[in-house]
Each structure stands twice: as C-alpha cells, then as structure tokens.
C-alpha cells in the first residue's frame, strides 16, 4: 500500500525497455486495483499505444458476496471509506445519497488503525434511511486462511473486528436472511396468477 505509483512506473519502465512485464494486483485490477493507474501513467508518457492487456480477476465484492449468499442480486453501490485519495466530505455525500436511493451498499476499506471512526460514521448515515435491523454481512480474508464471516444487523456489526482485510455489505430495505445466507431479491414474482416461476 502507498507504493502503487512507484510499482506502476517501474512496470512501465520495464515494458518500455522491451521486457514482457506483468503488474500483479489483487482482486480485479480494474476495481480499486492497478489498471487505472497504469493506464494513467501510460497516457502521461504518451504511450497509450503500448500493448497493455488487462486480465480480469475476481473482485473482493464478488468473492465475499458468494460467501454471504446472494446480497447483490439487485442494484448496489460500492464505496471505499479510504480518504487517502478521495476527500472525506465526498465520501460522506456519496454514502448519504446511496443510502437514500436504497442501494445495497458494499463498503471497501472500512476501517484501519488510522481511520477507526469512519465505519461508525457510515453506519450512522445509513441508519437515517434504514432500520437498525437491516441485514449486514462482513467477510474478512475471503477464501484465505483466517477467513471470517459475520452475518447480523446494522446495529450488531462488530466494528472492532472490521479492518482493511474486510468488506462490509449493508442490505437494502428488501434484503433478508434465508437461513444462514443474505438474500436481496431480484424482484421475480414467485406466487400468484402472474407468477414468473
């Protein structure tokens, strides 16, 4: 962390020198990853025509959602609480608007040693528009050793267990639990004369 520019510049320098170069990014390189920064650096140096292949990966939100059930079956918004590159006031405004619009919320970078109160503030904003009983899921270290999964409510999310290796899902007003899984219905009509299934 915090050495992304250095890594991208090094990769571009190596590629310009004729080396086949691979820049590794966790998750999907195009979702809070290294792809955008790499393209920006190529553009800055007038190298947009340099052969650059972006290989998709599995983003944390998809991996974590699969572990929780099906929380992303309808519209959702993804918001990072890291204010290293985005002003905190902008993040707060985005949270407020997304919560008002009843999106399922996916929270990246929810809490760090230096940002211990950001997630609590985010929960307070969402609580203006959602019940404190709204289903919430948290996954830490998805598909890695020490994987941790929490399912509960907006009021019961254990903030002290959330860190930078965690991703938090806050359901919309239709999200519920189906057994031990989080479920946001897509809107199919399952009963009645006009049932789709």
Description:
The protein has 197 residues and is of the alpha/beta class. The chain has two domains: 4-44, no CATH class; 60-183, Methyltransferase, Cobalt-precorrin-4 Transmethylase, Domain 2 (2-Layer Sandwich), CATH 3.30.950. The chain has five helices and eight strands. The chain has helices at 4-16, 35-44, 60-68, 88-100, 118-127, and strands spanning 69-70, 76-80, 104-108, 135-140, 148-153, 166-170, 176-178, 181-183. The strands form two sheets. A five-stranded mixed sheet has the order 2-3-6-4-5, with helices on both faces. Helix 1 (4-16) crosses helix 2 (35-44). The chain starts with a helix and ends in a 14-residue tail after the last strand.
Descriptors:
8 strands, 5-stranded mixed β-sheet, elongated, 3-stranded mixed β-sheet, 2 domains, 197 residues, alpha/beta
Can I get a quick summary?
The protein is of the alpha/beta class and 197 residues long. The protein has helices at 4-16, 35-44, 60-68, 88-100, 118-127, and strands at 69-70, 76-80, 104-108, 135-140, 148-153, 166-170, 176-178, 181-183.
